[in-house]
């Protein structure tokens, strides 16, 4: 191919890729001082959160009872700075209104972002307390587990739940975008996909974990156990008059306390699985289950 032909092809392709009609809703136009949330910074935020919530298991292994206050203090200070910046970036990302281009995003969002980051950090003791119940549930529910330390160090459910429980608190604080990125990071790391808006009680665990999906409007009670491959999803998407999916309506299951769902079971729609129910492996549920009932796939 001649140089002239190559230049023409490349120039034409660049022009086609730059056409506004081809970029509709696929292009985020940056404004001065308007950064996107940083995947690198959010990864560090999760690493810091894990080291604060489970010191000695994540982060510096040299931490001991004499130095723990110092280590947590340093990590908290760093976490607040990173989190504040990322929340501000998220607020800026979803704010599509024009604003004074002579003023950078920090002056418009910094105070709000600082306050939200502070509120999240203030909730870390409560997040640790509920994660402790998740560790207990995983330990008590797995005869192969030799210690709670093994659960914290090795089990993907704990890594996924740290991300989820931090992200869920950010959702409750009204932080946009950042919570979803955080739970998708756990999804990539563990194979466990929990939407940050889902509501999950204490003593929750997922055995093995790979392939579990928990939708945005799920409500899960206390002492619930899932196995690998479980889907808590939506059965259908109601449409508006224009044929577009209606957003913001409850469409995922409710699992009451003490429910067990075995591997590869699929529960779809706004159905209620009553207290103490057992859902067997490889079955499809689209209707309510009364409390203390069992449903298994019949053998041939």
Could you walk me through the main structural features you see in this protein, from its secondary elements to its overall organization?
With 300 residues, the chain is of the alpha/beta class. It has two domains: 159 residues, serine acetyltransferase, domain 1 (Orthogonal Bundle), CATH 1.10.3130.10; 103 residues, UDP N-Acetylglucosamine Acyltransferase, domain 1 (3 Solenoid), CATH 2.160.10.10. 43% of the residues lie in helices and 11% in strands. The strands form three sheets. Strands 1-4-7-10-13 form a five-stranded parallel sheet. Strands 3-6-9-12-14 form a five-stranded parallel sheet. The chain is globular and about 70 Å long.
What class do helices, strands and sheet pairing give? alpha/beta
**Mean pLDDT across all residues, rounded?**
90
Strand order of the largest sheet: 1-4-7-10-13
Contiguous low-pLDDT stretches (5 residues minimum) are none
Count all strands and give the number.
14
Query: What is the succession of H and E elements?
Result: HHHHHHHHEEEEEEEEEEEEEE
- The number of helical segments is 8
**In percent, how much strand structure appears in the residues?**
5-15%
**What is the name of the CATH class of the largest domain?**
Mainly Alpha
Shape: globular
CATH topology of the largest domain: serine acetyltransferase, domain 1
- Tally the structural domains: 2
Helix content: 40-55%
Distance between the termini: 64 Å
* Integer-rounded radius of gyration: 23 Å
The CATH architecture of the largest domain: Orthogonal Bundle
CATH superfamily of the largest domain: serine acetyltransferase, domain 1
Major sheet size, sense and barrel closure:
5 strands, parallel
